[in-house]
Amino acid sequence: MHLWLKKHKLHTLFNKLPEYFSGSIKCVHKLSSLVLCFVLLTLISHQALAESINITRQQASITPSGQLSISTRFETQLPEPLENILKQGVSIHFTLAYQLERPRFASYRFKLNQLLNNNPTINYRLSYHPLTNRYRVGMGTFSTEYHSLNAALKAIGSVVNWTILPTDTLNPNNPSEVKASVRLNLSTNKLPKPFQINTLNSKDWHLDSGWQPLMIQ
User: Fold this and answer.
1) What average pLDDT score do residues 58-62 get?
2) 172 three-state secondary structure
3) Interatomic CA distance for residues 201 and 217, integer angstroms
4) pTM for this one?
5) Where are the beta strands (DSSP E) in 63-217?
6) Which of 144, 153, 142, 141 is nearest to 86 (CA)?
């Protein structure tokens, strides 16, 4: 009797082995799928960071005259379509802007001034010159040449002690009550008309840091 029970248990165990192996294989497949998804998400995130504008310095201070002095630096990577048209002789424009959110009364005056006048910005023009194999960054009538695209992009959005706002707008003794932010973006409206159409169909043509808060001291 005991021998029959042992044989029966062994027979049952052998019958269930395919089920155990099947379950293990399914678990392996699920684990492989999760790993693949993680790798894909990592690659996508790296790609998004590689073709974007990221702020690396965002400092500001209140001057004794009650104005705001801004110092910023950005890291910009051009997607391939923009780099291609740059090499074809098309200039690419960027805009550095700021906004004041606090104090409330000063912010209200700032927004009202925006409606009545153009808000002060810094406009950059990036161009490539094939004869010299150099890149040029222009701001108004001033321009500087660079040996590499990476060096030229580092200059865009890089400012030191950019003084904004009318005098006596802010209280130098209360920097904690001031809230302001900056933004660097590709000026797609300054691209030639045929390329402006591309901005409607592809995210590669939308480079924007978004509004980044300033660390005010």
Assistant:
1) 96
2) coil
3) 42
4) 0.72
5) 68-76, 92-102, 122-129, 134-139, 142-146, 159-164, 179-186, 212-213, 215-216
6) 153
* DSSP-derived 3-state class of residue 146: strand
- Average pLDDT for the chain: 78
What CA–CA distances, in Å, run from 27 to 21, 41, 156? 10, 21, 50
Written as six digits, the tokens of 208 are: 């924007």
Side chain identity, residue 24: S
pLDDT: which is higher, 111 or 149: 149
Residue 26 confidence class, pLDDT cut points 50, 70, 90: very low
DSSP letters spanning 35-104: HHHHHHHHHHHHHHHHTSEEEEEEEEEE-TTS-EEEEEEEEE---HHHHHHHHTT--EEEEEEEEEEESH
Cis peptide before 103 (omega within 30 of 0): yes
Domain boundaries, the chain: 1-50, 54-216
pLDDT digits (tens, 9 = 90+) for 99-137: 988 888 777 677 666 655 666 799 999 999 999 999 999
